[in-house]
Structures
1.
Amino acid sequence: MPLMESTTELKFFKCLVYFYVILLSLSGGLQIFFGATFAWNHLSYSLVLANNFWIPSTILLCLGPITYLLCWLGWNAVSKKNRNFLRIFTILLVILVCIQFGLSAWSLALREKLPGASKYPLDTSFEDFKANMAEHTHIWHKMQYELQCCGVYELTDYYRTGSSHSGVPWSCCSIPKQSEHTACQSFHQRGCMHVLSDTIRERLFYVSIVLISAAIIQSMGLFCIIQLTILLHDEDKKSIDQAEMPSTSRSRERRERRNKELLPLAQTSKVPDNQKY
């Protein structure tokens, strides 16, 4: 009866770990999706804002394939009942979870550096843009049009190049109809530094949320993996004991048989006391 209960418990935890590996693969897919999305959005303005704010989303993207490798290791460890693979799987999972919690904290810390960290890169890029304003494919045109902003700090940044709106590019128009400033009736008033900083801060917050969520999901199955490792150890121990038990019984039987064979010889070798003299 105890053996049957142990087998049932072992099957139960094997199913739980299998389910956990499937859940782990889903979290890896989400890491790849969100990491690629955030990294791609940041690369859109990387020429304007050269910094390390892209690193958390890129690491999040790289953690996805690593998670799939862990899924492969965990699945094989369970199917082959390999306790060593399960131990390695557990250790790597703990390391992965710790990395994600640390990366999440770092993402939140990076948010606090904005908008100060974006001031110098934007000022430098803006000076280059003013010298090449006629180039309609310039990154500043794309950024001002998509983010609905104008200048680094505000619209008046362009007044340095002219005394009126003649120095304001078409991408600053609220509703641009063509790439000519004469079509503009109104302009975006907010500077791009504040809009871009808010956008990056929001993305870093989402990266942090995804990392924490993935770490929580991935840590949920650690108990099941450890329990399965213990059960496999107990099963191996019972198998060894059962293998040694027949040999022990045979040795005992041989000793008893030998004792029975030697007993008559011992009895006949005894001399009666009245025949000694």
2.
Amino acid sequence: MTELELSNLVTIKCKQQVIRAVRFNIDGSYCLTCGADKKIKLWNPHRQLLLKTYGGHANEVLDAAGSCDSSHIISCSTDKSVILWDVATGQPVRRYRGHASSVTCVKFNEESTMAVSGSVDNTVAFWDVVSRRQEPVQVLKDAKDTITSIQVTNNEILTCSVDCHVRLYDIRVGKMISDYIGQIVTFGSITHDGQCYVLSCADSTIKLFDKDSGELLNTFTGHESKDYLLENAINEKDSLIISGSASGEIFYYDLISSKCIKKLLHNLNKPVISISHHPTDSYLLSASEDEIKLWGTSPMEE
């Protein structure tokens, strides 16, 4: 299994105080880093190239995402705002101010016509990025506490919250399924086949659920959450679940057996909170303090 021969290919000091999130773009050729320095940086991590810096938030940037054609970036911040950026010019195109508190997470829909943001104000807001409309198109108010993460597929939205629930919204029929997990859910992913969701919980576990039945299929343990909002990732083959850890390690778990089959050390005792897996290849990005590392089997072929 080549997946286990991962090594650290690149280390980049981002000079952003602390990296709050690292995100591959749609095809995995670029990545975004969100900084406590109020900026977003666009990189080619494979070549260690800083391509552009986006400044305009008034406080720490907590999350960002690239559009499907890589022409725009959407970002969110503790300044309560969501900003739509023009990638090429580096300028903010629109600034959305509908949230009453820090905005923790943001995603585009598949066509990148809509941005979806989650906040410490317990709401999820939908922004039409095509029109000039400033107010949210819709606001979901089902959660009773902070929204920690959002995933958007072509017709579903998965939201996770400190209220120990995950909520799956079916956009086509307008229905919502709420599942009580019993632990604070710090991050949720959906497997590439759309069958399962993978939840990072504050009790240092990751839980794998069947999306349709709500059945708990597997629990993964070994990593340490402490009080960090750890993220998880799923490899491109849906065979491995990946997690950062307060210990500074990255854990690879076998999705079927739930065994930890690989540990990578980013930085001992310096928490790895944000990770991002390449969409189609075995590359992984991890962030710890002010640096990101690219892991993979071999340097990317030109």
3.
Amino acid sequence: MRSSNAACSTVMEPQSASFNPSVPSSSLSSKLGQSNFRRISRTEDSSPYPIPGLAADILHMRVREGSKIRNLLRFVTARMQEDRRDDNGTSLRQVVFTGSGRGVTKTITCVEILKRKVGGLHQVSKLYYKTVNEVWESPQQGAAGTTMQRTVPAICILLSKDPLDPQEPGYQPPQSPSVPAEETERRRALLRPALSPSPQHTAKRLCLDEWSVCSP
């Protein structure tokens, strides 16, 4: 399954999951918001990573609906680019991004930007489902609140400086190096003076064109 956004090349490998028809859909959540209900808490199940073989202390970037992409990328880019070693004497080689619900698209955006900033990253992507519990508070004084349980899509993306198993479903090799758009525009700007005629040549051409008309 490939992301519909052309700017994102992340491949999402779907994981099998069973849906419970009794679980309320996301439309109920929007209806509660329209009825002036206020969501006071949201918890997700602590399901394990769908990617096998991950270290227990791996850097985990949890992307939420309200997360700021700039803040997330500033932190993870500094960690992935630096040569500093942790307490075990090893440098940071892997990072895993997770997001669910409306945070899935933002998770993919973070991954694609990081891959451009830090080259040579191997990738494994998994799409799965997780359970979310929400508690909504009624606007009426003394009225009982509402607790709902939903099943939402989620994504888990592993980025690694070290090679990963290419046979693993959802694997993507490192992107081939490409010339940045800024560098391409700069090269085009340097070529424009050589390709375009100078003002002096343009003036001469105009004089020659008008000579046959203006000469007696």
4.
Amino acid sequence: MDIAGDDAQRFLVNSNEALEFRLIRCPEDLEDEDTPFGAEMSHQVFGENETIFGYQGLSVKLYYTAGRLTAYLNVDYKEKADPDHFEGVEADDIPKILAEKLQHGFLTNLDTFVASLSKEAEFVPHGELINSFRCGRDGEELSTYEVYFCDTSNSKFLKYHERLQTFILWYIDGSSYIDTDDANWRFFVCFEKYKMDGKTMFAIAGYATVYQYYAYPKNIRPRISQVLVLPPFQNQGIGANLLRTIYNHYVGMDEVLDITVEDPSQEFQYLRDYVDCQNMLKLSSYQPNMLKKGFCEEMVRDARSKFKINKRQARRVYEILRLKVTNRKDEEEYKQYRLSVKRRLNTPFQKEQKMVIKLKNVLAEDELKATEQLKSREQRLENLDRQYKELEDEYQHVIERLAASLS
């Protein structure tokens, strides 16, 4: 069947636009216009094109109670495609598709879901409380947040995690559910702590997963895998506090070599840079007088010993902080900074050139042609300039956030 036909197009729906999420604390939240939030992506559930076939006026409501994460699903539409008009092709079975991703037992009756809210007051986060902090958006009252640490030995938490992890499908690209049979996983879960009718309540705000890799001979290298702050809680500093909590959990452990990050998104890299810069500014080796002398082994040692930051990230933080203290109106000072960064960026190219020289002594002429794809000097300089400008833009983003945090 030609789904691209005009008639079929009327029944193709953008799945991102059709989805509506809510974290429900009380029945009034069901009607509150400020409560809904949408999906940033849906291709991991509804396919690469992020479309649902077979409906007009489609609304897919996926609600959770704010603490226990009891789920409710409702699919509503104005019109459903008749298979007889589309060569027998049925409309997408949305409940079936979502059932493959959601924990078994999600609710489809709204009254039953509302009744389940009475159990929210009984909910207490699983695991060990390891941090508490207050934060909020500019101009708003500060809220209290708590971070709980869990591992895979906590069976009650693992049941809870089955519900919690469903959020990553809509907000973390390339995500997948983790294998909780692997005992190396660690979890850091953040809740807002609030009062309702005189009772202490908890609402999920975000979480992070960390995998503890073995490092020879008897060390570990924790790798941050997934970090998610849910949309209603974004842009108020929770992500930075969650990352600091992870750091603080590991920095005192002698067996930890350093903390790495698995394939960070641009947004998470900004967050990591911001927190790392704040930490490194506390070190004498990262003060302005030292930064202008250039990157050195003392910086590498301090970053690893004090904050478990690896050499590559330490170099990046050095470049951000050196740019911060560089007088860009001073032509020579600014030039020296740019050359320092470009020399680092050019290192892989220099290694390639050395390899080509070695290959010339061992390869036949036709085999050597494969190496001719290396860029000319002019192309390389142009590429270096582009890389540098992109990097400076990234660094400036972090510098501006650092300045805002001090104002």
